[in-house]
Design brief:
By secondary structure, this protein is of the alpha+beta class. The chain has nine helices and four strands, in the order ααβααβαααβαβα.
Length: 196
C-alpha cells in the first residue's frame, strides 16, 4: 500500500529533509512563523493540553545571550541562523484546560492539580509538539536545525521562568552552502516493529 501524501511532499517533510547546519541570510518573517504555528497547532496532545511555548529570538542582544549558552559546536550555527526559536514546556498548561478541553473542564484539577504530574505531561506533550513544529518548518519550505546541546538551566534563567522547561533550540531559515551532513543510517522496519 502506498501513502496518500504526494511523493514530493514526503521528500520535503521526511526523505530529503535533514538537520540544517548552515543557512542563508534570507530572513524568516513573522508571517511564516504564524503560518507554521497555524498548521502544527492541530497536532494531537493528551487532553488537548498544548503545552509547547515558542520564544523567538530576534534581537541581536538576545541572540548574543543565547549563543553564549549553546554548546561550543552549536554556537556558530545559532549565531548565523536567520531565526532561532527556544521551544519549552509550560508546566502551568493546566490553567488553559477549561478552554482547550471544554467538554471536561474539571481535568485541570482532577488530573493536573499536582506539579509533578503536570511536569511529566508537559514534557511528553511539548516534545510531541516540538516534532510537529519541525515538520511545520519543513512544510514552509524552510530548514530546521534542532539542537539540545545547550545549558538548559541557563536558558531557563535567561529567557524563561520557573514554570517553563526548555526542550531545545531550533535554528530556522533557508539552507546555506554545505548545510547537510551525510544522512545517518536508520533502523529497518523489522528492527522496530513487533507484532504480538
Amino acid at each position: 500500500m502506498s501513502l496518500v501524501l504526494d511523493p514530493a511532499a514526503q521528500d520535503l517533510l521526511f526523505r530529503e529533509a535533514r538537520t540544517a547546519n548552515t543557512f542563508t541570510d534570507e530572513p524568516v518573517t513573522e508571517e511564516q512563523v504564524q503560518a507554521i504555528y497555524d498548521l502544527v497547532k492541530y497536532g494531537p496532545t493528551a487532553f488537548n493540553q498544548s503545552p509547547l511555548r515558542i520564544t523567538l529570538v530576534r534581537s541581536p542582544e538576545a541572540r548574543e545571550r543565547l549563543v553564549a549558552l549553546m554548546a561550543e559546536g552549536n554556537q556558530p550555527k545559532t549565531a548565523a541562523a536567520p531565526l532561532v526559536a527556544i521551544l519549552s514546556a509550560d508546566n502551568e498548561f493546566h490553567e488553559e484546560l477549561p478552554a482547550l478541553f471544554p467538554h471536561f473542564p474539571q481535568a485541570k484539577d482532577v488530573f493536573f492539580s499536582e506539579r509533578p504530574a503536570r511536569e511529566g505531561a508537559a514534557a511528553l506533550n511539548a516534545a510531541l509538539q516540538a516534532a510537529y513544529f519541525i515538520i511545520g518548518v519543513r512544510a514552509a519550505g524552510l530548514a530546521a536545525g534542532p539542537m539540545t546541546g545547550l545549558d538548559f538551566e541557563g536558558v531557563r534563567k535567561e529567557f524563561l521562568d520557573d514554570d517553563h522547561t526548555p526542550l531545545m533550540v531550533v535554528n530556522i531559515g533557508k539552507p546555506g552552502p554545505d548545510a547537510w551532513y551525510p544522512r545517518s543510517p536508520r533502523l529497518a522496519y523489522e528492527d522496530v516493529v513487533t507484532t504480538v
